[in-house]
Amino acid sequence: ATFKVKIHAVREPQLPELDDEFAKDVSEFDTFEEYKNSVREKLLKAATERSDNDFHSALMNAALENMTAVVPEGMVMEKTDEFLRNYAESMGIGGNVSRADLVKMLGMTEDAFNQMMRPTSIRQVQADLLLDAIVKAENIVASDEDKEEVYKQIEADYGENAEKVKEMIDEELMTRDLVRRKAASVIYDTAVKTEPKAEAEAKAEDASESAEEENKD
């Protein structure tokens, strides 16, 4: 087959000048230097958070590899159901929908769903058991201040709907989540991070410079 293509025009993209006027147009800053520093700080924060998340995941995986605890089958199924409920809530599906119907919405049978989620559920139960053991060994508790921080965050996130959200919170589950987070911090805080902060800063600097160079070309 033969195709004919007619080119009406070839235009070169006009990139804005990276100056103070550009900074004023795209941000709340008055100078391009201030804007560039702000972008760099955001990139550094994002790079550091990614680095910390990877570091925390690696630590947790290493800790779980050393576990010898037997995972009760009932806990695995409970965790699988929890994942399914969380999915339903994220999709705005009411709690009156049956498990079978929820799984059917995913285009799967219950057996297929259980098998698919089994490795993840086992891993999460292992993590819960590990954290609960640390909570017990370290006598970790959730203080009133910890709970108040949760409520403050809810108010910041939900505004006028905050009170309704608070009423839906199961305080026992919230307390369990808080102490498990503290237990996870015990693991993170006692480990030595080998990747220096300078590397995250270098990544942010490279990203900032690359963006600036692209605008110059």
TrEMBL record:
Name of the molecule in the record: Trigger factor
Domain of life: Bacteria
One GO-annotated biological process of the protein: protein transport
Species in which this protein is naturally found: Candidatus Scatomorpha intestinavium
Pfam families: Trigger_C
Stretches for region Disordered: 194-217
Gene symbol of the encoding locus: tig
Domain Trigger factor C-terminal: 31-187
Keywords: Isomerase, Rotamase
EC number: 5.2.1.8
Biased composition annotated in UniProt, kind: Basic and acidic residues: 194-206
InterPro entries recorded: Trigger_fac_C, Trigger_fac_C_sf, Trigger_fact/SurA_dom_sf
Broad class of enzyme this protein falls into: isomerase
Keyword Zinc-finger: no
Biased composition range(s): Acidic residues: 207-217
Transmembrane segments: none
GO molecular function: peptidyl-prolyl cis-trans isomerase activity
